[in-house]
Amino acid sequence: MPRLLSKERITAVPGFNRWLVPPVSIAIHLCIGSVYAWSIYNPALIRVFGVVTPASDDWSLGDVVWIFTVAIIFLGLAAAFAGKWLEEVGPRTVGVVAAACWGGGYLIGGVGIVQHQLWLIYLGYGVIGGCGLGLGYVSPVSTLIRWFPDRRGMATGMAIMGFGGGAMIAAPLKESLIRWFYEPPEYLGTVGSVDLVTEAGRRYVELAGQLREVVVVGANDIVNMIVPGPEGVYLLGTGSIGVAQTFFAIGILYFVVMMIAAFSYRIPAPGWKPEGWRPPNAAHRARRMISANDVDIDQALKTPQFWQLWIVLCFNVTAGIGVLSVARTMVTEIFGTTLPGIVDGAFAATYVVMISVFNMVGRFFWASVSDFIGRRATYWIFFALGIALYVSIPYSAQQVSVSPNVVWLVYFYAATMVIFTMYGGGFATIPAYLADVFGTRYVGGIHGRLLTAWSVAGYFGPVAITSLRQNAISEAIQDLSSAVDPQVFAATFGAGLDQLAVLVENQTVTIAKLMDIAPAGTVDPTSGLYNATMYLMAALLAIALVCNALMRPVHAKHHM
Description:
Radius of gyration: 25 Å
Distance between the termini: 35 Å
Number of helices: 22
CATH superfamily: MFS general substrate transporter like domains
CATH topology: Growth Hormone, Chain: A
Structural class: mainly alpha
Order of helices and strands: HHHHHHHHEEEEEHHHHHHHHHHHHHH
Strand content: under 5%
């Protein structure tokens, strides 16, 4: 087995067609890139018990978004380790281990859902699966840079394009599998036809002499249902949301595909160059800030350029990854109540797919553009345009809540898609940027260590967006509860306003349910839940813009 996985076994023979390598890299990245479609799981994971709507014992959105966060953190940590290991053992060994971790992590996560043990999902999908992400991510990058020294940006764009496009395939696949395995809970009737009892913030009905817990679906809850059904009362403990079975099926599929791809890797022989290619002259290198010298992996960490690029990557990723982690929920909350005939579950799922499409296209497009205008100039565009777009999103959300109009949805859609082309472009361009600054000899190892920035961003992005969202929800519920009639509130929820905190904690009272009984003309605050997040992301991009502007060539004392 060690010989089968060794670098010597996969060294290409003379005359090997280098264009056979990109499809292998893309296949692995398509599998691990499905992590970007994590938000498809969110609505199901917060309804494991309730199925049609969150129940008292269901996980919150903050709980399940953290799973995505842990996976991204371990992606960066594993990549930092794997970068140097890759140089020693070659991409086939790294790819095989990545397949075992990513596929196995899914299976362990599925067991965690069945047992309703959140820590098992963190361990499986988050820790083990995250290590698979990091190993699978770095395995093709340095390989393709060596195969395509004449087009570094295009090469890394091809490698990382698959990661951005993974969600394009995974989102509809996950959505279809969840619906395939979905079983609706037992429907007991409308609210008026069932005698409801409220105890400690939970809703119950009496069946066969026993109190059985139920969930209540109101008019504003239907848009968030996995499979739409009637308003009314549903019995807890019946039906299935289908997410555990989806984890098992996808885990097996990804393991098989990644193993086939890993055994198809080839690396160029030492000293190989494309036929007829000559390295760029000194004038071209100086103009594009391309170094003719190499820097050792450990020495690179001692340069200010490494940490400038670390901040550039970290803040660019933070700005995008927080939105990615809740994309499906975000578009539904901002536009679902104001444009219910347009924005529903199917629209939100398609939105996640389109994020993947533009993320993927941006990786190839911007990385290729950087070959012509330079990496530094490319990042200037990312940050200047990104700041303007992030700042404009709260305005469109405010306008649609005051005057529901599809124009604001179109603007939001277009703005976020442009943002995600640049988010993906940042990932695809950074390996070529590193090769320009530090040389190509150890670019794989240096790239792996730079990806620790992704770990930090994977923590702060989702945490920032969920924390700021939760603060906005709490404020909105307080404002709405003070506006509703106390008698109507008590009749609706079976408890008075003095028990608001308990009712909110058990998810009996939500913004959607309060809007059902709010006075006519009350503006739904849901569309503004993400405003503070967008301003924060714009500020982070401004800092990254400064770091990129200060980039200079590495001092000669650091050269090998």
